[in-house]
Design goal:
Layout lengths: L8 H6 L6 E13 L4 E6 L7 E5 L6 H6 L5 E10 L7 E12 L15 H6 L8 H23 L3 E2 L5 E2 L11 E2 L26 E3 L4 H11 L1 E9 L12 E10 L3 H22 L1 H16 L11 H10 L3 E4 H9 L2 H4 L16 H12 L3 E4 L21 E6 L3 E8 L4 H10 L8 H8 L5 E7 H9 L20
Parallel strand pairs: 3-5, 6-10, 12-13
Antiparallel strand pairs: 1-2, 1-4, 2-3, 4-5, 7-9, 8-9, 10-11, 11-16, 13-14, 14-15, 15-16
Helix pairs in contact: 4-6, 4-7, 4-14, 6-8
Bound molecules: 4-amino-1,4-dioxobutan-2-aminium adenosine-5'-monophosphate (4AD) and magnesium ion.
Length: 483
């Protein structure tokens, strides 16, 4: 039988195959034996549920059964029969078992017991074989698929923007350099600076922090586009919300103003959460229980009010709150939290940058809903955001989620050439380097807007995982690039 003729566990559970002879392949989660029979719980990753295989020692040799230990990979042919025990409706009566790959029980690091997430991070090459990580990565897939489905169904085009660039779109100076120069023998100019003319691209380059600037160019031709790719930031932030390599979804739309942008973002976020609720019910049920157990270890007054699934439904069913930065500062400044000096960074005056403690106060304590914060001071935002008539603020929007803080950052873009170049001068961004970006303001400019969704933060929100390192297969953070 060819390998690809195997039946997935998901298929057996969804279709009635009783009486049929089939072949299963997967990894052993547990084995229980007595002298009359062995029960093997097999998992092939297609679904969270393990499938029970019954092996009679008169049919399967003792030598083979011994090798069916936790972690081993098996090919099992047998007949699907109605299950005797409770739980599953059917099980597989094994006729033959082939050991595809043994797993020495003395050495296999994953035992059938609860391992800490910290320990599992150290064996990230194996952790997808646990229920938790299987669930997380199936949900992650569903969310990625939902992103493409949402935009495709709306007539947006998927643009692949470059990963190597010469620009720093966000202007935060947190880029990783890309070079083929010999770091031990750097070529120098006459002034003693590194001579990037000698480098591969004959200029200084870095990994992209955002596909937005190129996305804007595409929107000026195709009207509505989105990017979905990896982005890189050398932020030295060791938090549960930051990665050095993360995936971002960036739609960019011609003929949208700030309000259209907010409407799209809210609709999009609700759509992908609803998609997960409808398509990942079993995994979310498991993750909900897992999150509940974790909540129960916290002091009663710090526990979340809603369970995971109820929280997701709540977000889908309720309008997001929309308010301006100025209104938010008033709320924060007058809050008891601020007066009692419970914030690490006290809010004293208009213009202060919001820290995640402030964002979370607004969302978790004050409104208890997702919040779209708009019209931030221009001095704490990127150069490309459209300047408001007050001369002080820009048409920015950040979307804040409970338990996460900022999940989306976006804005209407400055389409007026004179305003844009004036802002670039103020922020010391050389026009010569962004001549191509400025050309869209010279030729056929139009109001347009867009935003960026941090994909891992969304996966965190939907799976209830507390640490961003646990929602990407192989996380990149300061000091970590194993696997
Ligand atoms: O707010 P940011 O920096 O916005 C941009 O990059 C814009 N160019 C987006 C746009 O308008 N097209 O980043 C967008 C989102 C954040 O809201 C956050 O969810 C996520 O990206 N993000 C990170 N996620 C994980 N690790 C990091 N280090 C992140 N930095 C930003
Ligand atoms: Mg931001």
């Amino acid at each position: 039988m060819a390998f690809n003729k195997r039946v997935k566990i998901k298929t057996i559970l969804e279709q009635n195959l009783i009486g049929q002879e089939i072949t299963l392949m997967g990894w052993v989660r547990t084995k229980r034996s007595n002298k009359n029979v062995s029960f093997i719980a097999l998992n092939d990753g297609s679904i969270i549920t393990n499938y029970q295989v019954v092996a009679d020692p008169n049919v399967i040799s003792e030598e083979v059964l011994k090798k069916c230990s936790t972690g081993a990979c098996l090919k099992i042919t047998g007949t699907v029969v109605a299950s005797q025990g409770s739980g599953q409706s059917s099980e597989l009566n094994a006729k033959s078992i082939e050991i595809l790959g043994e797993a020495d029980p003395e050495k296999y690091p994953l035992q059938p017991k609860k391992h800490s997430l910290e320990f599992l991070r150290e064996i990230a090459h194996l952790r997808m074989r646990t229920n938790t990580f299987g669930a997380v990565f199936r949900v992650r897939h569903a969310l990625a698929f939902a992103v493409h489905k949402y935009f495709n169904d709306k007539g947006f085009f998927y643009i692949h923007t470059p990963i190597i660039t010469a620009s720093d779109a966000e202007g935060a100076g947190e880029t990783f350099k890309v070079t083929t120069l010999d770091l031990n023998k750097l070529p120098r100019t006459e002034e003693g600076k590194i001579d990037f003319k000698e480098d591969f691209f004959e200029r200084e380059t870095n990994l992209t922090v955002s596909g937005q600037l190129e996305g804007e160019l595409a929107a000026m031709a195709l009207s509505e586009i989105y990017t979905f790719g990896p982005t890189f930031r050398a932020e030295n932030s060791n938090t549960t919300r930051h990665l050095a390599e993360f995936w971002m979804i960036e739609p960019e739309m011609a003929f949208y103003d700030a309000e259209d942008n907010q409407d799209l973002a809210e609709d999009f976020l609700k759509y992908i959460i609803r998609y997960a609720l409808e398509n990942c019910a079993e995994d979310l049920k498991f993750l909900d229980q897992r999150a509940q157990e974790e909540e129960n270890t916290k002091p009663a007054d710090q526990r979340a009010e809603l369970g995971l699934i109820d929280k997701l439904k709540f977000v889908v069913e309720n309008d997001f709150v929309r308010l301006t930065y100025t209104e938010a500062i008033d709320i924060l400044r007058n809050s008891n939290h601020n007066k009692k000096k419970k914030f690490q960074y006290l809010i004293e005056s208009w213009g202060a940058d919001l820290q995640s403690e402030h964002e979370r106060y607004l969302v978790e304590k004050h409104f208890k809903k997702p919040v779209i914060l708009t019209d931030y001071p221009k001095d704490i935002k990127a150069f490309y955001m459209r300047q408001n008539e007050d001369g002080k603020t820009v048409a920015a929007m950040d979307i804040l989620f409970p338990g996460i803080g900022e999940i989306v950052g976006g804005s209407q873009r400055e389409e007026r050439l004179d305003r844009l170049t004036q802002r670039m001068q103020e922020m010391h961004i050389p026009e010569a380097e962004l001549w191509w970006y400025l050309d869209t303001r010279r030729f056929g400019a139009t109001p347009h807007a867009g935003f960026g969704l941090g994909f891992e933060r969304m996966v965190q929100f939907v799976t209830g995982m507390g640490n961003i390192r646990d929602v990407i297969a192989f996380p990149r953070t300061p000091g970590n690039a194993e696997f």
